[in-house]
Every structure is written in C-alpha cells, then in structure tokens.
Amino acid sequence: MASEDYSKSGLLTYLRESARSGVLNPAVARSRKIAAVHLLDHIESEERLNLRLLDVDHLCSKIHKLEDSSIRVEALDLYNSRLKSALEDYFNYLDNPENFVSTAVKQPNTKVQKKKNSQEQKALEDITLLQTEKQEEIIPIKIRQDLTVFIKDLPMDLNKSEAKKITRVVMAYVEGEE
Known about the structure:
Mean pLDDT: 80
Low-confidence stretches: none
Order of helices and strands: HHHHHHEEH
Number of helices: 7
Structural class: mainly alpha
C-alpha cells in the first residue's frame, strides 16, 4: 500500500489487509468496512481520491436526508462512529506504519468509562443488528440513473482469481457489444 494513498480504495484495502494480518480484530475490520462501503458510496469524486477532505458528520446528515429516513438514526450514528474510527486508524497507519496501534486496541482510562462505553456500544449494536441484519453484507452498485445492482456476501479475502470468476458470470449477461 502506498504511503500517500488516502483514497477510498486505499482505505478498503487497508481494512481487508489489517484483518488478514491481525492488526485489527477481523470483526472490527469487517464492521468498519461495512460502514465504509455503505457511507462512502455517497461521497464526491474528490473525496474518493482524498478521504482527508471528508466530513463524516456532514456525510451522514446528507445520507439521512437523501434516504428520506429509511436508515434509522441509531444505525447511521453507529456507521458514523465506525467510519471515523476506520479513518483515524488508516491515517495514523499511513503516517507511521511501523509504530501503528489501532484505536480499537486502546483501553479506556477508568473502569466507569469502560463500562459506559461497553453498554453504549452494545445498545448501538443491538439496534443496528435488528435493523440491518440482512442488509449488512449487501453492496449497492449504481450502474445507471435508474438502475442499482446489489452484490451480496463477498468474502473479505476475495482474490483476483475469484473476482475474475464473478466478472465472467456478469459478462455472460451482456447483450451485444459496446
């Protein structure tokens, strides 16, 4: 991974690789990747190339308005928090890969703070799981103005050979030549 790659694809690669290498707990990496994929689908092209330009709170507000409240505020807040953590870790990793320690590993200073964070996190996860249990693994891809396709259950460790196999299946649906 290039040390100056602040792009959306760089972030997604980082999340995939950090889960494989053990830098992040795979469940943490997966939850952050799901949030990133869901939220970053709505960003501008400049932001895709340089995530340092992204205001996550503004993005979530925009999504809430665009989706006309189809996403529960609690789920959007959880995605917001996970994307912010993913970005913070990613930027810290790019700044200093040799001494990088994830924010997910850092422990709260007090027992009270730890218990409070744990309770809040559990409540948010419970709410999100109820709302998005079946939608978490679905990746929307807008093809045309009036058409969006969805890919479900892509593994985090997808390799090029497997991606080519998926591509061949999709290409079988093509009508005519462009």
